[in-house]
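Lab notebook, bench 4. The sequencing result for the construct came back, and we need a structural model before the next group meeting so we can plan mutations. Quick request posted to the team channel:

Model the 3D structure of this chain.
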Amino acid sequence: MADSFLPYKNPDTTDKKLDSESLTVGSDTVERERIQVAGKSAAEIQDVKNDKPANNAYGGIVRPLNAGVILATISGNATATGNVGSEQDVGARSLILQLTGTWSGTVVVEQSNDNSNWVSTILYDVAGSIMGSSGGVFTGITLNGIFVANIYARYVRVRVSVFTSGTIVVNAVLWGDAVAPSQIKIIPHSATSSGLIKQEDSAHASGDVGVFMLAVRNDANAVRASADGDYHVFSVDKLGRQLVTSAPRGQRVKNAITLSTTTETTLLSAGGASVFNDITKLIIANTSGTDVRVDFRDATAGSVIFSVFAPAGQTVGVACGDDPIPQTTANNNWTAQLSAAITDVRIFAQAIKEA
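Done. Here's the predicted structure in token form:
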């Protein structure tokens, strides 16, 4: 198509040329004026073409849609099952749904690309709390509140899938901005069998699902965490039995003393502020030829908590297992005292520190 120009009359100057091109409309050949977007200079003309632009081509500046712009709304008062409303091709990336009223039922938000096959959408409770018998993340809403969903498809609708009673007041707003995952507090809770996290005192039901917790076989009893305060796996033996101990090594204390007089003697020193030393094991070896009684106190000069009789030339022991002898008051000594002076009594004690 050849370029051409139409003259126009300017009363103040000589005639100028109008930029146009010829084209056929019906049986006539007409002139169409070229409309161009230009900058400050004559060369700054925006080039529109169906091709990759050149590096030095001029283009237009497009401002993105401002955050917080409402693209469409869906609202209504539902008193039965069915669609409350739908929208299509509005460019929405998120939906904010508010439900109010007194009602019993289930509301869902669904998306589709063909307006025929609909898929349920995950919604997030903006309160991020456990509410009623539902929770912070769901595809079917059964309670009032404000809920957020990301939108990906062309069509979106709000539908009442189950209705029992009342009036469900629906107010949904479609926005141009997606909801970032970091802005969503996920609490995958439900009182039903499909919820990952169960609420306190909820009854067990057949078919309940949850998060499967795995343990690690640890035949060598190896350390699985590199430092104090690190997360650690559950350790089990080859049959899947959990490996446990009465107290970590760092929580155990021990000491040994030798007595030959009736003087009260410290057996285990005080553990420090707010620390109780609870005895788990005692071994008493009486190497003398005289029987003796040993009294034990959980504070220096305190009351006798228990006594052990040690026959002459014998060794006796006390093993408390998982039921240690508790210390009455924190940060105190355990002491031992013989009932009579004899040649040699050796006492070993072990305790666990409890705060």
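Residues 129-135 have pLDDT under 50 and may be disordered.
Will bring this to the meeting.
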